[in-house]
Amino acid sequence: MEKTLTGMARAEFADMRLEKNIAATAGKADKTAIFNNAAQVWNHTFYWNSLKPKGGGEPGSALKKIIETSFGSLDVWEHAYYLDYQNKREDYASAVLDKLINWGFAEENLC
């Protein structure tokens, strides 16, 4: 993610890559607002990149094995489902995993 924070009141962070901004402000009480905003941008950007039209299906075998070993199954990791699905998490997870998940993006970010 090549995003930078521009237009921030703090010039020292204005041209910094988003990941570096988060790392530089994490745990610093006087930088909480900057950290929170940067982390929210990163989280939401990562989430939306995790979806794509006509996505879904099964992950590649290596990723599937890691998911099953680590979690047993894939859990809901974003609160955006609430507006459309309310507390119907299973319906949300099915819609995302069957039609939207971008397994290629997931594999690109596999550590």
List its traits.
globular, mainly alpha, 0% strand, 2 domains, 111 residues, 7 helices
How would you explain this protein's 3D organization?
Helix content is 57%, strand content 0%. With 111 residues, it is mainly alpha-helical. It has two domains: 1-49; 52-111, no CATH class. Helix 2 (18-25) runs antiparallel to helix 3. The two termini are 15 Å apart.
Extract low-pLDDT stretches.
Answer: none
Beta-strand content bin: under 5%
What integer is the average pLDDT? 82
Number of H- or I-type helical stretches: 7
Strand count = 0
Shape: globular
Instruction: Kindly give the count of domains.
Output: 2
Structural class, by secondary structure, is: mainly alpha
User: Could you give a short account of the major beta sheet?
Assistant: none
- State the helicity in percent bands: 55-70%
Element-level helix/strand string: HHHHHHH
Spatial extent as radius of gyration: 17 Å
| Ends distance | 15 Å
What is this entry, summarized?
The protein has helices at about 10-15, 20-25, 30-50, 60-70, 80-85, 90-100, 105-110. The protein is mainly alpha-helical and about 110 residues long.
Please render the helix and strand layout as text.
Layout: H1 11-14, H2 18-25, H3 32-49, H4 61-71, H5 81-85, H6 89-99, H7 103-108
Helix pairs in contact: 2-3
